[in-house]
Please model this.
Amino acid sequence: MPRDGAGPQSNSVTPLELLRTPPARERSDAARNRAAVLEAAARLFAERGVDAVSMDQVATEAGVGKGTLFRRFGDKAGLAAALLDARERVLQEAILHGPPPLGPGAGEEERLVAFVEAYLDYLLEHLALVRMSETAAPGARYRIGAYRFWHRHVAILAPGAPDPEYAAHAVLAALSAEHVTALLPELGEERIRAGIVRLARCAVR
Model:
């Protein structure tokens, strides 16, 4: 099976880089408003829970008009996606340029397991926000730019699968926020983590 230090790495870095959504350019006043809104939303969500916080409350806390908030983020799901963006960029950067096994330099199976573990850490820390962003509308999860990045990464790490593209979707299906939320009360984090790791190992074999 090819190692990441040779073929797969040289073929995969550029496509993954291109799948990253660059930060939007904005005026300094717009950037200040955005930062204030995201800070206020993060604080309110942490204090009260995502479901208990309204867009009106976020606007008041941030000191911006409600119209400004809705024009910029659309709805609470859009606000959730914006909050998650910075967290996703950290994980993407580690995948592209960080140390192995999450970053380049380890074998496919080792890297895939490291990704599953790191993604679960991120997901469980922000579960309510990720669930909102993924279920805002039918198929919303698959239209999120980050999903295309995760999918391409997993497919690259599963060259031994009969259909790497499908295998990547199957692994990511087990990592959906809705799926993990439903299983947590019954199975708990440890069993979910072990089960998804086994699934990931099967995908690359």
